Structures are given as structure tokens and as C-alpha cells.
Amino acid sequence: MLNLVLFGPPGAGKGTQADFLIQKFNLIHISTGELLRSLIAAETPLGIIAKSYIDEGNLAPDYIVIEMINTIANEKRDANGFVFDGFPRTVEQAIALDSLLNENNTPVSGMLYLDVPNAELIQRLNNRSETSGRADDRSVAVIENRLKTYHEKTDPLRDYYNRQNKYHRIDGTGTVNEIAERLFTTVSAL
Ligand code: AP5
Ligand code: MG
After folding, report:
1. CA 49 to CA 52: how far, in whole Å?
2. pLDDT at position 77
3. From ligand 2's centre to the CA of 74, what distance in Å?
4. pTM value?
5. Which atom of ligand 1 is nearest to the CA of 174?
6. What confidence score (pLDDT) does residue 110 get?
7. Residue 105: what pLDDT?
8. Residue 85 C-alpha to ligand 1 middle, in angstroms?
9. pLDDT under 70 in the chain at which residues?
10. Ligand 1 test: best mutation among 124, 128, 151, 155, most atoms within 8 Å of CB?
11. C-alpha to C-alpha distance for 58 and 149, rounded to whole angstroms
12. How far is the CA of 14 from the centre of ligand 2 (A)?
């Protein structure tokens, strides 16, 4: 089983590159951001709680996200593997993912960090805000808070995976095809 953690700040290209990886390696895409947005759209009790965090650019509570991941991973036990996009985002989530995957003897194969300079992230998110319809793209203040939250809470996970020798930095600049090729080379060598 190939389990990839596709990692990086808001706007790094996680969703864009996940599409290439799932096609190439026949994997299932799990984006916690997309799952949360569908809970919000369906106005479920968890969605209503999550909305107040997401709309401000803060992280949703760990218990909501961990519950979602456990449910999907168990439903898709016979998958070839997963691309986790935007998850884990805290040490608590990373520990929960390790314990879930270790139960099935299918640990994280590698963590792929898409490295993109801050100025380019802001430019990409500002461009996307014109068309995405995402509540958290709507204002510069919220975009800035997402980036700040990433640096405070999520970026330290690079060390977490580095300590497990699973950390791979990928240059996240250039064309989407160039970046996909870099990812394919790294994943093929895992
Ligand atoms: P999430 O949905 O994960 O959003 P994000 O991390 O803020 O990242 P984005 O989806 O905005 O960017 P991306 O890296 O996917 O890049 P994309 O491919 O779209 O999370 C949203 C919110 O949900 C969080 O803030 C949090 O509140 C909550 N949440 C989610 N997961 C959570 C968790 N685990 N725990 C707690 N809370 C959680 O690309 C961005 C743009 O750039 C696009 O317009 C794209 O077309 C463009 N682009 C892509 N590649 C290139 C390129 N090479 N050159 C130029 N433009 C490019
Ligand atoms: Mg995304």
C-alpha cells in the first residue's frame, strides 16, 4: 500500500498535484478541506461547528478531522493507497494517522512537502479568490491568517516526518507538469 502525505501551506498546490498522483499510482484522494466543506454545505452538526473555524482561517478541531479520516480509511480498506491532502495538520493528527495506519500494517510511505515562497502563495490564493467561491479565500485577512496558522501549527510537522526519515522536499514552483514529474520521481523511489 502506498500512503502519501501531500503537505504544504495554503496555495502550495496540494489539490492540483493530488489529481496527478491518484491517476499515476491508482490511489484514493482524501482532502480534509474538501470533506469539511461538504459537511458545511450539508449543514451537519459537525459541519456547523467546523464552519466557524474555517471561515476565519483557523484549524477545525482535531477530533472532527480524526473522526472523518478514520471513517473513510476504514470504508476503503482494500484501496491501493491514499493521498492525504491537507492532513495531518497538527502533531495530534499525525499521531492519530500513524496509529490508524499501523493497525493495518500500512504505514505512511512518505511525506511530500511542496515548497513555494510566501509571495507566490499569496498571489495564487488572491487569483483563485475571484473564482473559487470558498469562504476562506474571500478576504486578505483570512488568507493571511491561514498562512500564519500553517506556520504556527502545521509547519513543525516537517520535523516530525524528518525524524522518521519520511520527509521529502519538492520544489513547488514552475508549471504544474514540472512539479508532477518531480513528485513522480520521488514517489517512484520510495
Ligand atoms: P484546505 O482545503 O486543505 O486548504 P489549504 O490548505 O488552505 O490549501 P488550498 O486548498 O487553498 O491550496 P492547495 O495547496 O490545495 O493548492 P491548490 O492546488 O488549490 O483547508 C481549508 C481549511 O479547512 C483550513 O484552513 C482549515 O480551516 C480546515 N482544515 C482542512 N484540513 C484540516 C485539518 N487536517 N485539520 C484542521 N482543519 C483543517 O492551488 C492553489 C491555487 O494555485 C489554485 O488556483 C491553482 O490553480 C494554482 N496553482 C496550483 N499549482 C500552480 C502552479 N504550479 N503555478 C501556478 N498556479 C498554481
Ligand atoms: Mg486544496
Report:
1. 6
2. 85
3. 23
4. 0.97
5. 53
6. 98
7. 86
8. 9
9. none
10. 124
11. 6
12. 5
